[in-house]
Design brief:
CATH superfamily: Histidine kinase-like ATPase, C-terminal domain
Strand content: 25-35%
CATH class: Alpha Beta
Helix content: 25-40%
Number of domains: 1
Number of strands: 5
Shape: globular
Distance between the termini: 40 Å
CATH topology: Heat Shock Protein 90
Strand order of the largest sheet: 1-2-3-5-4
Radius of gyration: 17 Å
CATH architecture: 2-Layer Sandwich
Order of helices and strands: EHHEEHEE
Length: 146
């Protein structure tokens, strides 16, 4: 399955893209995946990525579109978030130190904990691409031993 959506850089569209992602995946995977367990993880990754584009990459430019693409092969999920911002130089990223009580900078850390693979590409055909990948574990079937 492949699908995509383009929305304005406006946090009011957050519920729309959450529902789009989770409903698309649920429709395709039906009962193969434990949604109660994995939908929260996917929702959090999407919210973190999209809100970073709105707040940082597009900084108050709601007319700039955000393109979100999903590709699902078996249970392998690839999610791409495309923006038109200046981009972020990952070589300057320093992970937050909890005892410093830093207010920001946790997004990259969160995404890497939630997903199996996280990549960021600057300036691909004039846009930036954040690629998130994970394999959704098959639903565990409880067996009854007599």
């Amino acid at each position: 399955m492949r699908t995509e959506i383009q929305v304005p850089s406006d946090l009011r569209f957050l519920t729309i893209i959450e529902n789009w992602l989770l409903n698309s995946l649920a429709l395709e995977l039906e009962e193969q995946v434990d949604w109660q367990r994995h939908s929260c993880r996917l929702r959090l990754a999407l919210v973190e990525a999209y809100s970073n584009v709105v707040r940082h990459a597009h900084q108050g430019q709601p007319d700039l579109p955000v393109m979100i693409k999903v590709e699902l092969k078996a249970r392998n999920l690839q999610l791409e978030i495309w923006d038109h911002g200046q981009g972020f130089d990952l070589s300057t990223y320093l992970p937050p130190i909890p005892q410093d009580k830093q207010e920001g900078g946790y997004g990259w850390l969160i995404l890497n904990r939630l997903m199996d693979r996280v990549e960021y590409q600057l300036r691909v055909n004039g846009r930036n691409c954040l690629r998130l990948e994970t394999t959704l574990p098959e639903r565990e079937v409880m067996s009854v031993n007599s």
